[in-house]
Amino acid sequence: MPNLDNRIPPPLIAASAALLIGLLSFLPGHFPLPYGLRIALMIVLFAMGILLGIGGVIAFKRAQTTVNPLKPETASTLVVGGVYQYSRNPMYTGLALWLVAWALYLDSVIALAGVAVFVSYMTRFQIKPEERAMQALFGAQFELYKARVRRWL
After folding, report:
1. For residue 90, which of 104, 79, 100 has the smallest C-alpha distance?
2. Is 25 domain-assigned?
3. CA-to-CA distance for 17 and 34, rounded, in angstroms?
4. Can you give the residue range of the structural domain that contains 40?
5. pTM of the predicted structure, to 2 decimals
6. Residue 13's closest CA among 133, 119, 107, 131?
7. Is 59 a member of any domain?
8. Rg (CA), the chain
9. Residue 153 lies in a domain
10. pLDDT single digits (tens) 8-44
11. In total, how many domains does the chain have?
12. Residue 56 lies in a domain
């Protein structure tokens, strides 16, 4: 298998996972929630995903560092403020929340497997390579941050 580290843009991975979720939704298995509660939860998760994603981009822009997930080695600053004090990967967490919201909208419990695929892929091929780049760039500062803040939430 070719090296997939930091090769595919995360929004494309999320779109692929959304397609997988859509396909999985044709299998049996509905959420045991009343319609209104399920839709309300979907809206809340989608909104949280937007806030995390936008918050992550804003924090990067304020720090004047790259937002390009395909070239983490070009980061000029270790961003630890804003939403980054709660998650080391708020933009990816936001995408995962959108995918959970999509599964809720489709009323498919089994479709959550698509979210698990997304999280697993992102951790292995995007986040861990980014962490290696941050370790090389920021050393002990990144180690302290990593010890203090969780990878996802």
Report:
1. 79
2. no
3. 25
4. 15-20+33-148
5. 0.94
6. 119
7. yes
8. 16
9. no
10. 999 999 999 999 999 999 999 999 999 999 999 999 9
11. 1
12. yes
